[in-house]
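queue> pop job 88
queue> type: inverse folding (structure -> sequence)
queue> payload:
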């Protein structure tokens, strides 16, 4: 799968992009070819459970507010 080829640097960059409120999942897909599910898996593996839960909540909140967010 795609995420086997990712370096530590890529993973850090992806996490940073995913955590940013200004970067959508489609931007990450354009740059890294990763689906939303793959991004979630990377996040789950690399940030704490608590951070992950907060992140999911925030993504949901933004999505409800803005149609095309993430």
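queue> result:
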């Amino acid at each position: 799968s795609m995420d086997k080829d990712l370096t530590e640097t890529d993973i850090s960059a992806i996490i940073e992009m995913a955590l940013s409120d200004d970067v959508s999942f489609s931007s990450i897909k354009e740059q890294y070819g990763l689906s939303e599910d793959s991004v979630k898996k990377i996040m789950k593996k690399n940030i704490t459970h608590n951070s992950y839960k907060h992140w999911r909540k925030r993504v949901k909140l933004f999505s409800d507010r803005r149609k095309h967010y993430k």
